[in-house]
Design goal:
Rossmann fold; 3 domains; cell cycle; nucleotide-binding; ATP binding; MurCDEF_pg_biosynth; UDP-N-acetylmuramate--L-alanyl-gamma-D-glutamyl-meso-2,6-diaminoheptandioate ligase
Length: 455
């Protein structure tokens, strides 16, 4: 079968392309910006990429057009597909029908921590010899790829497939959340806050979609739920038909000890111990969720904890990009205020009283709308200085950050932001760059400018 994928360079659609290619299909694709790292990964797989959405791509005559959710009405290629009456399908639906059918799907949903927890769970199963398939919205360092089919299970067992379950909408013609398509037997509900203000009116609208996911889990399935989240409790109160285990609470799965070395407790009884390199309470909770989910497919907690000792996280999760002039520069995917606060807290626990210079870009659709701008001073509370890229926003970043006083700076260009950060940085400082995009290559620019200043 020949698939032509629209929006192929997004992490999710690129993952689908890799899975389809591994399954033996011919795959081509297009995107508005054919950009690395996904473009490099796809070309290495032998997938031909086209820049732009030109109608002349109809000449490729694929068996099916797979549509990413970045594609909207008015897109010239999509309009040509509709006009010609050609067969098309969303990415999540193609995945469900051609990859997930017959598998034991373990889906990880939540506002924060999906990529990390999905990667943890996949690594636990890999370490246990289960050779799972997976699709992750990032590149787990333990695997080096964002997606793979995995190995078929022995007769009578379902092969595991671990998937990051995003609540964002499926396609312009299917406004359900992506995760509704996945039909998991094990579902992790990591947390739930308001996000994606471009498609959801309020938190209740997202809770409704999460309940749609709950409705798809069979009676023999398991829901692994953050017991600290009132929003998730409201989701379950709408109806629940599966075993439910909670984490983060004393009567469920909990932790005793520092986030880098802690005992795993099940109903108050120690069952495993995790000692690893990850930072922060959020990752401790992610680990509890992954251990509880892995138990549902037969991996003992002690074995899961042993796997986490060698877990190497995902690119762009407090990733040290380099050091110059005695200043360390980090990259992180955080963009929601809660994620920003959690990331700064994780670094603070690592560096103690050393200075943290937080550099961030409000790039997500929610942040561009200014829906959560009032939460930014709270999110950046533990940073010594904060630097914001305010270009292209429809709201005044300086006004939003005014409660921080002289600790906050706003610049409208990346170059000006780099200049301001370098002027403020001192040897021993930690510069934490946060964005869900490439941030204009700011990491390399900072390191180059810091090295030039030092030498």
């Amino acid at each position: 079968m020949h698939l032509h994928i629209l929006g192929i360079c997004g992490t999710f659609m690129g993952g689908i392309a890799a899975l389809a290619r591994e399954a033996g299909h011919r795959v081509t694709g297009c995107d508005a910006g054919v950009y690395p790292p996904m473009s490099d990964q796809l070309r290495a797989l032998g997938i031909d990429l086209i820049e732009g959405y030109t109608p002349d791509q109809l000449a490729l005559r694929p068996d099916v057009w797979v549509i990413g959710n970045v594609v909207t009405r008015g897109n010239p290629l999509m309009e040509a597909i509709l006009e010609a009456g050609l067969p098309y399908i969303s990415g999540p639906q193609w995945l469900a029908e051609n990859v997930l059918q017959g598998r034991h799907v373990l889906a990880v949903a939540g506002t924060h921590g999906k990529t990390t927890t999905t990667s943890m769970l996949a690594w636990i199963l890999e370490h246990a010899g289960r050779q799972p398939g997976f699709l992750v919205g990032g590149v787990p360092e333990n695997f080096g790829v964002s997606a793979r089919l995995g190995t078929p299970a022995p007769e009578g067992r379902r092969a595991p497939f671990v998937i990051e379950a995003d609540e964002y909408d499926t396609a312009f013609f299917d406004k359900r959340s992506k995760f509704v398509h996945y039909r998991p037997r094990t579902a992790v509900l990591n947390n739930l806050e308001f996000d994606h203000a471009d498609i959801f009116e309020d938190l209740a609208a997202i809770e409704k979609q999460f309940h749609h996911l709950v409705r798809t889990v069979p009676g023999s399935g398991r829901l692994v739920v953050n017991g600290r989240e009132a929003s998730l409790q409201r989701v379950l109160e709408r109806g629940c038909w599966s075993e439910t285990v909670r984490f983060g609470v004393a009567d469920g799965w909990s932790a005793a000890g520092d986030p880098q070395a802690f005992d795993v407790l099940k109903a108050g009884q120690p069952v495993a111990r995790v000692a690893w390199a990850l930072l922060g309470e959020h990752n401790q909770l992610n680990a509890l969720a992954a251990i509880a989910a892995a138990e549902h497919v037969g991996v003992a907690p002690a074995e899961a904890a042993a796997a986490l000792a060698t877990f190497r996280n995902v690119k762009r999760r407090l990733e040290l990009r380099g050091e110059a002039g005695g200043v360390k520069v980090y990259d992180d995917f955080a963009h929601h205020p809660t994620a920003i606060r959690t990331t700064v807290d994780g670094l603070r626990r690592k560096v103690g009283a050393q200075r943290i210079l937080a550099v961030f870009e409000p790039r997500s659709n929610t942040m561009k709308l200014g829906t959560m701008k009032s939460q930014l001073p709270w999110a950046l509370e533990q940073a010594d200085l904060a630097f914001c890229h305010g270009g292209g926003l429809g709201w005044d970043a300086a006004e939003a950050l005014a409660p921080m006083g002289g600790r906050a700076r706003v610049e409208d260009s990346i170059d000006a932001l780099v200049e301001r950060v370098v002027a403020a940085a001192r040897p021993g400082d930690h510069v934490l760059c946060m964005s869900n995009g490439s941030f204009g290559g700011i990491h390399a620019k900072l390191l180059a400018a810091l090295a030039q200043r030092a030498g």
